[in-house]
Amino acid sequence: MKNLKLAIVDDHELFLYGIAYLLEKKLGRNNFLKFSEAKDVLTYLRSGQEIDILISDIDMPDMDGIKLLSNVKREFPKTKVLMLSASNDQGTIQLCQNLGAEGYVSKDCYRSTLFEGLTEIFKGSYYFSKGTEDRETSSHADLYTMLSEKYRLTGRESEILQLILNEYVTSEIAEKLSCSIFTVKTHRRNLLKKMDVRNLAGLIRIVNDLEFRFFEK
Asked: Are β-strands 80-85 and 103-106 bridged in parallel, bridged antiparallel, or unpaired?
């Protein structure tokens, strides 16, 4: 792992340099790339430079970690991404998985958890840290998989469904997935057609009914 090019992006300077310090102590090196804005990561990659593993915060101004993840995985699929967030929201974790993140750890985790996650990703595996909401997260992941299989949703339709259920409006979905509003509306229309409902209320009714039966098992 010592030869990997690692990068960290976080808008909080104290946390940014704190993570870098922990990695320096663990790996015995101090040449980590540090970015305070997500757009600077894309500028760096688009200049022809490479990043092996990117550790990214989610809540950042201008461009958040979800949009950064979407862009990185679309343009630079070889770059592995470990999401680092203060949130353990199951919808966010599942969305990161669907967008291609190799890992997700909470900011309040032990440093050993962060190192373990990086090690697993380095070995070509995935790492989503265990937490108090693991059972619920796993169950929701299975629920989304069930919905995708039942209604034969595409990967993008499944992502949009999750964002809709997490109360994102069309413009916010377009921004997070780095696509046009027209594209989002097209996917949403196809989504409603496949699920045989006329509007958002019908979609939510189907999901709630399936979720109730799923968690009653």
From this structure: parallel
Q: What is the CATH number of domain 134-215?
A: 1.10.10.10
Nearest to 98, CA basis, from 202, 176, 19? 176
Q: Which fold has domain 6-128?
A: Rossmann fold (3.40.50)
Would you say 143 and 214 are in contact if contact means Cβ atoms under 8 Å apart? yes
Closest by CA to 8, choosing from 29, 48, 28, 37, is 37
88: Cα within 13 Å, side-chain hemisphere: 16
Distance of CA 102 to the CA centre of its chain: 9
| Domain layout of the chain by residue ranges | 6-128, 134-215
Give the pLDDT of residue 216.
Answer: 42
Instruction: Convert the pLDDT of each residue in 60-104 to its tens digit.
Output: 888 899 999 999 999 999 999 999 887 777 778 888 988 999 999
Domains 6-128 and 134-215 share a fold: no
Contact 13, 34 (CB under 8 A): no
Please tell me the least confidently modeled range out of 108-112, 113-117, 194-198.
Answer: 108-112
Q: Are 127 and 171 in contact (CB under 8 A)?
A: no
A 10 A CB-CB count for 135 gives 11
As a whole number, mean pLDDT of residues 197-202 equals 80
104: how many CB neighbours lie within 10 A of its CB? 25
Which residues, in sequence order, are CB contacts of 65 under 8 Å at separation 6+? 9, 38, 56, 57, 58, 59, 83, 85
Strand bridging mode 6-9 / 127-128:
unpaired
